[in-house]
Amino acid sequence: MINSSGQPAWAAALLKKVDMNDVATDMEHFERDDRWLRENLDRLRKEYPDMFVAVYDRKIVAAADALADARKKAKDAGIDPAKCVIQLILTKDYIWVL
Amino acid sequence: MPNIPLSLDEQGKIFLYIQLFSPGIPNPKPLKIYLDTGASHTTLSLKDAEEMGIAAGNLRSSEITNYGYGGRMDVRKLPEVCMVFIRDDKSTVPVCMDSIQVNYTYSAVKKKDKDKIVYGMPSVLGVDSLSRAAFGLHVNWKDKTAYLSSA
Q1: Residue range(s) defining the domain that contains residue A31
Q2: Is A4 within the bounds of a domain?
Q3: What is the pLDDT of residues B101-142, one digit of tens each?
């Protein structure tokens, strides 16, 4: 079933619950933190080799060997992991053939 | 008309930021996704799926057999997903798909640290989503500028 906005009914119901202003704000913040992470990758590779790091407000707020542990540490520090950029800091450069 | 900005990494690969919503995503969050015009299907990485609370192991297998350069992939199907893109004027563009794929391949990389490598693999935005959205793709590798145009 397609509604007047061209979306299926399930999509219209799903998007009705989403505040697009919040989404835009969160994405801008996420982009800034991801850019900071890329700019500091060489240093982070030395400090957090093969670890998952969580970045919020351009700072490392948690680091752990496992993704779940990095999320938990961020949460314990009072930061919502959903607002963090979490990345595995691989010590080697891998080529992804996409 | 405002566009959806794309970024190029140091190797010239194109990426962007989106957010996904779905009844199967308990913890939505923004994610970085690579644009791949050679991929027929949009596929979430295992890391991004786990971050959003998607239990990929409980999802149904995709009916499609997926192969990459690493061999056959174990891919699951996440139904009813809306992707939200952001334009440079901060307005949003939702694009909804009946389903997208979730990578559940642990065995493709046969090395001691294979799981870590799998967790480093990115999510990819494939042709299925670009076609559904009817986006225009504009890339200039000389200037390292790129964007998606949307009606």
Answers
A1: 9-88
A2: no
A3: 998 876 544 555 556 667 778 999 999 999 999 999 999 999
Residues of B whose CB is below 8 A from A38: 9
Sheet of A52-56, strands arranged across? A59-64, A52-56, A85-88
Tens of pLDDT, residue by residue over B9-28, are 988 999 999 999 999 999 99
Residue A97 lies in a domain: no
User: Are the Cβ atoms of A7 and B122 closer than 8 angstroms?
Assistant: no
Nearest to B89 by CA among B31, B19, B2: B2
Does CATH place domain B4-149 in 2.40.70.10?
yes
Cβ-based neighbour number of residue A52 at 10 Å:
23
Break chain B into its structural domains and give their ranges.
Answer: 4-149
User: Is the Cβ–Cβ distance between B110 and B20 less than 8 Å?
Assistant: no
| Total domain count, chain A | 1
Residues of B in contact with A51 (CB under 8 A): none
Q: By the CB < 8 Å criterion, does B92 face chain A?
A: yes
Optimal mutation site among A93, A96, A97, interface B, most CBs of chain B within 10 A: A96
Question: Model-level pTM?
Answer: 0.90
Q: What is the ipTM for the molecules in this complex?
A: 0.89
Nearest CB to A27: which of B17, B47, B96? B17
**B17-21, B55-59, B91-95, range with the lowest pLDDT:** B55-59
